[in-house]
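Hi V.,

You were right to ask for the full record rather than a summary. Here it is.
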Amino acid sequence: MNHLRLEIICWSCLLIAMAVSTEAASVWKLPTAQMVYEDLEKCRQESQEEDAATLRCLVMKLGLWTDESGYNARRIAKIFAGHNQMEELMLVVEHCNRKEQDTSHLDDWAFLAYRCATSGQFGHWVKDFMSQKEVER
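Predicted structure:
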């Protein structure tokens, strides 16, 4: 019986170690405007130009969205950390995530939560971020 317990503990430790190393290996990086434009073009083709599906595809590729929890407010706030309003931005994103949550219509959830969050000052920040690419061209 003790042998079985020891084996279960060893397997549990191994699984925990694998999970930690997998998370460490998939370190998220801040997207650049260039990355956004490249992924946006791929997503437009994949979704046949449908806005909500394109948006969800894009934010998934950028690591800003999961179908289980919606937008990752912390990652979004890191992109716009230079505005020194990370906590406020996270609250807005989390509020819009909860308000629009609809796990049976994921594209709509992503689109409506985005529209909600970008209806104020954050929307101007997104436009400024995306205009960085325009300057580079």
